[in-house]
Amino acid sequence: MFSALTVGAAIITAMAGVYFDINQKMSHELRNYGANFFVGPGKQPFIRDEQYLEMTRLAPNNSLVASSPYLYGMVQADLEKIVLMGADFSQLKNLVPYWQVKGKWIGVSFDERNAMIGNKLAAKLELKLGSRINIMKDGERRSFVIKGIIESGASEDNYLIVNIPVVQDWLDKQGHINYAMFSLANDEGQVERYTHILRQKYPELNIRPIRKVSASEGKVLDKIKLLMGVVAFVILILSTLCVNTTLTAMISERRYEFALQKALGASHKAITHQILMETIIMTTAAIFVGLALGYLLAQILGQTVFNSTIDLRLPVFVITPILSIIAALVAAIVPTIRAMNVDPAKVLKGE
Predict the structure, then answer these.
(1) Interacting residues of 165 by C-beta distance below 8 A, sequence separation 6+
(2) Which terminus in the chain has less CB density within 10 A, N or C?
């Protein structure tokens, strides 16, 4: 009986722990798919820097994971014209974590001497890590050291990527960007709130969430939460049945004890109180052990699925005892009735 209650409490603790902590963990995992919010120009062909900075300040509290402005232009390199892409290097690693980088990420937004390059362009220009690439304009030359070669599986594989202030200066587009990308946590619908805020503030801009990323987050979370709930419910039912079976067998073995008590004047209420108190004491001990085992099981699930620990939140310490006690009391109903129906005359005959 103790084992069945402990297993039930442990499973409930683990599933509830994952259920209440999964929003944060899943949101973090889905950020690996990249940005989930796009802001582009509307009537004007560009967005101003000050608009972009204001957008970052308007993001819901603690929801903005990373963001970057982008600016593109054709420039003359050593051998041929190439596409120069400007971005905020301090944000790229969190904004596009799916990029495969050979070498190093450039982690600061003020580096004007180093660059990253797409693997296809690097192969075409026969450039390696540490190589220099020059861009030229009207007799002016600028040199960059290749610190990282990226493979994105997209158009960036053909670009030379530098910090955006360099591109703005080189193209004479100071204060202008082509568009901006944002990565926001969406475990509580922050993307939709952000969309509403920006569309009210900047009705002239093209503001839209990237549905394939932001919408999938909620769907995946709902499915996993449903799975956690179903597993916990099934285990709870099985635990209840095990406890019921065990209690029934115990009542059968103790029928002489209950018959003697009734023969000595014990009431049905007294017998019921005795059985329920024994069940609650056993359940209480099982809850403490189950919470500890459930915490360990939750960490195993967290490390296996999310490569992270699971935090047991306050609702877990409320749900586990309540459900465990309810399951134990439900399981005790039939055995308690059988104990009350023991007939002393038949059981003690011949004793």
Answers:
(1) 86, 109, 110, 112
(2) C
Cα torsion angle, 220, 223, 229, 233, sign: negative
- DSSP letters, 263-323, are HTT--HHHHHHHHHHHHHHHHHHHHHHHHHHHHHHHHHHHHHHTSS-----HHHHHHHHHH
Q: Per residue in 181-202, is it b (16+ CB within 10 Å) or e — as a string?
A: bbbbbbbeebbeebbeebeeeb
Q: What is the pLDDT of residue 350?
A: 61
Q: Please answer whether residues 290 and 4 qualify as being in contact, where contact means their C-beta atoms are separated by less than 8 angstroms.
A: no
In which residue ranges of the chain is pLDDT below 70?
23-33, 211-221, 306, 350-351
The per-residue pLDDT for 265 is 86
Residue 135 token pair: 């861009």
The residue whose two tokens read 């690097």 is 122
The reported pLDDT for the residue numbered 134 is 93
Q: What does the alpha-carbon distance between residue 64 and residue 72 come to, in Å, rounded to a whole number?
A: 24
What's the CA gap between 50 and 34, in Å, rounded? 24
Locate all alpha helices (DSSP H) within the chain, ordered by sequence: 2-30, 49-58, 89-95, 119-125, 164-170, 190-201, 211-253, 255-263, 268-305, 314-340, 344-347
Q: The dihedral of CA 104, 109, 112, 116: what is its sign?
A: positive
In sequence order, the 6+-apart residues with CB closer than 8 A to the CB of 198 are 39, 55, 58, 205, 207
pLDDT at 275: 86
pLDDT tens per residue across span 231-286: 878 888 888 888 888 888 888 888 888 888 888 888 888 888 888 898 899 899 99
Which two three-digit tokens encode residue 161? 């990527």
Confirm if 125 and 144 have CB atoms less than 8 A apart: no
Question: What is the pTM assigned to this prediction?
Answer: 0.62
